[in-house]
Design a protein that fits this description.
The complex is a heterodimer.
Chain A lengths: L10 H5 L4 E2 L7 E15 L1 H5 L7 E2 L4 E9 L7 E12 L2 E11 L2 H11 L3 E3 L1 E6 L3 E8 L2 E13 L10 E7 L2 E25 L11 E23 L5 H4 L1 E2 L2
Parallel strand pairs in A: 1-11, 6-7, 6-11
Antiparallel strand pairs in A: 2-4, 2-13, 3-5, 4-5, 5-6, 8-9, 9-10, 10-12, 11-12, 12-13, 13-14
Chain B lengths: L1 E6 L9 H21 L3 E4 L14 H10 L5 E8 L7 H14 L4 E6 L4 H7 L6 H17 L3 E4 L4 E5 L13 E5 L4 H7 L3 E4 L5 H15 L13 E9 L3 H22 L16 H10 L7 E3 L1 H14 L3 E5 L8 H15 L1 H11 L1
Parallel strand pairs in B: 1-2, 1-11, 2-3, 3-4, 4-7, 7-8, 8-9, 9-10, 9-11
Antiparallel strand pairs in B: 5-6
Helix pairs in contact in B: 1-11, 2-3, 3-5, 6-7, 10-11
Classes of the chains: A mainly beta, B alpha/beta.
Chain lengths: ~250, ~350
């Protein structure tokens, strides 16, 4: 497997469900007391490459991030959001490329896609938080498409989390772009634990993704600030040449 | 200030039967020549699974081979990973003692705990525990070297009383170091009376702060071994050529290859939601460097440039500068040797004088 390789995702197919954003400088959102579960897990290289856009480089080892969040309040009210992302490099910069997300609030779906380029489908998102475990679940069309159990909870210091920008495939002025969204996240409470995940690949546009080797799983309470799009990248041409920061 | 060379044995694709053979044997040649030129240290790193970037998974073998073809140069294990899934401290004590014997007392023992998910995950190690296991290892290894019989009961390792053999040739034992890439690790080194083996390419201003904290803290250390090793080493790249532009063109290949590879592998703790340690990060350091003067402190250039930059390190109080001579073989072997010879002829004399003054 060559080191200096790029992703081989079929961007044309993915553009079919890519949203349109209006501006690179959307109005910010600050969301308080968000409960977030995240699992990171190594995946097979070969199908992993098929999920990464051609302008980005797959990570070595390949891995993915599965996030389930419950936002108790926002400008559009309470909503749940679940994401499946695959790790990718924008040049040397570590990021996650969003494969698909689900949200249970229509107004939030509209805002997430039109402001920050989230590919977001309708589905019920829930977190059951218990003292010894947490359970994240997503259902859509009457089917369970994600079950995420975190058990053997163990408290962690508040700041020791790695958060990475999410890269979203979207359109701006009719042209496809990859938009890097950095969410400022402050943790007030978090645990790590063991992860047990069942994922419906097709529902997440994650064909071929196979969860192999869990790296870690966490559940925490956080404050989020969605700000500007941080950077853009061409969808086909190498990020090293096409990445541009948004002033 | 003294000079050393450092190897990570990077092997570019496409791989053939000869690829690793060539890199390993060229490296051995690049140890013999520098010894004759006055370099005083050769270091080899321990990495696993870092394809192309480093195939130096058994540095003790390479370093023993290096010891066998040299007489004076000191042999630096940089570093031994002190994590139970990688090796028991018994095996580390045994094999380093044997290396010290074969090198007739030239071994320097660097210690560390790895920071990449690629490696830690490959061994099934928990990154949240590596600092603790490292601490336990560095406390027991000197005792294993020095005590005729040894027993221990700890968190990561326990053993009934046994004779751990052989014993090192150096008495009481070889000098011990800590790989310092994360902010704060210099304090771990200083508190334990261990040398600070800098392996980050952080800007000089950052490293100056690290060095000052180290010097201050080590004055009140509680050494893990029988003596304090208060030396500070830093890592650098080296390509020396009479023509500064040629040096930058050829030597620049080393850094331009090293950086993306390093970032890809060495700084991928983001695979974990939790960080393996608090650190400024190689990536951010490289960014900071690129944003400022990318040549500051770097020994790639003509002799004049290199002397000027190395004098800054000397002024800061660094004891040893270890040079990486290549990365994925971007510089042909012969050019590496030419660079070493020119460095020895034109650059080293500027530092021998200050060494002599320091000795007086």
């Amino acid at each position: 497997m060559p080191m200096h390789r790029y992703g081989t995702a079929d961007i044309k197919a993915r553009l079919a469900y890519a949203p349109t954003i209006k501006t690179l400088k959307p109005e910010a959102w600050t969301l308080k007391n968000v409960r977030t579960m995240e699992a990171r897990c190594e995946i097979l290289d070969a199908p992993g490459d098929l999920l990464v856009p051609p302008s980005l480089r797959p990570c070595m080892p390949a891995y993915c991030s599965i996030v389930v969040s419950e936002i108790p309040d926002s400008p559009v009210g309470r909503f749940g959001l679940a994401e499946v992302r695959v790790a990718a490099r924008v040049g040397p910069r570590p990021t996650f490329f969003l494969l698909n997300s689900y949200c249970d609030n229509e107004a939030a779906r509209k805002e997430l896609s039109s402001r920050w380029g989230y590919s977001v489908s309708a589905g019920e998102v829930s977190i059951r938080n218990e003292h010894y475990r947490a359970v994240g679940a997503v259902t859509a069309g009457g089917r369970n498409i994600l079950e995420f159990l975190l058990d053997h909870r163990d408290p962690l210091p508040g700041t020791r989390f790695n958060q990475l920008p999410t890269v979203n495939l979207c359109k701006l002025d009719g042209k496809p772009i990859l938009a890097g969204v950095s969410i400022e996240i402050n943790f007030t409470d978090n645990d790590k634990g063991d992860q047990h995940i069942t994922l419906d690949n097709a529902a997440w546009h994650a064909e071929g993704l196979k969860l192999l080797n869990p790296t870690a799983a966490t559940v925490g309470v956080t404050d989020w600030t969605f700000g500007n799009i941080e950077f853009t990248v061409d969808v086909e041409n190498a990020a090293e040449q096409t990445m541009a920061f948004v002033d | 200030m003294k000079f050393g060379i450092a190897f990570q044995l990077s092997v570019p694709r496409p791989w053939t039967r000869e690829s690793e053979h060539t890199v390993f044997h060229n490296a051995l040649e690049q140890v013999k020549v520098p010894e004759s030129l006055g370099f005083e240290y050769v270091w080899a790193t321990e990495h696993h699974f870092l394809e192309e970037y480093s195939h130096s998974s058994s540095p003790e073998i390479f370093l023993t081979a290096a010891a066998m073809v040299t007489k004076k140069i000191r042999i630096g294990h940089a570093i031994v990973v002190c994590v139970p899934q990688y090796a028991s401290p018994i095996r580390i004590a045994e094999r380093t003692a044997a290396m010290d014997i074969f090198s007739s007392g030239r071994l320097e023992v660097g210690t560390g705990r790895s920071a990449t998910w690629t490696e830690l995950g490959g061994f099934g190690a928990d990154p949240d525990l590596t600092k603790k296991s490292w601490d336990e290892y560095v406390h027991v290894i000197p005792k294993m070297w020095m005590q005729e019989r040894f027993s221990y009961k700890g968190q990561f390792f326990s053993m009934p009383e046994r004779a751990i053999l052989p014993k090192p040739y150096q008495k009481p034992h070889p000098p011990m170091w800590v790989a310092v890439s994360s902010a704060g690790t210099e304090l771990d080194a200083a508190e334990r009376g261990m040398g600070s083996l800098g392996i980050s390419f952080a800007p000089m201003s950052v490293q100056d702060q690290v060095l000052k904290r180290y010097r201050k803290t080590i004055q009140n250390c509680n050494p893990v071994g029988a003596f304090v090793n208060n030396r500070v080493a830093t890592i650098n790249f080296l390509y020396c050529h009479e023509d500064d532009k040629v040096a930058q063109q050829v030597g620049g290949g080393i850094t331009s290859m090293f950086q993306p590879l390093a970032v890809q592998f060495m700084h991928n703790p983001e695979a974990l939601p939790t960080k393996p340690g608090a650190h400024g990060g190689l990536l951010s350091q490289l960014r900071a460097q690129l944003a400022g003067n990318p040549r500051e402190g770097i020994a790639i250039g003509d002799p004049k440039h290199i002397i000027r930059e190395l004098k800054k390190w000397e002024g800061m109080g660094v004891d040893i500068v270890n040079f990486m001579l290549n990365c994925v073989e971007v510089v042909p072997h012969e050019k590496v040797l030419e660079s070493l010879r020119l460095f020895a002829k034109e650059v080293m004399p500027a530092f021998k004088q200050s060494q002599a003054q320091a000795a007086e």
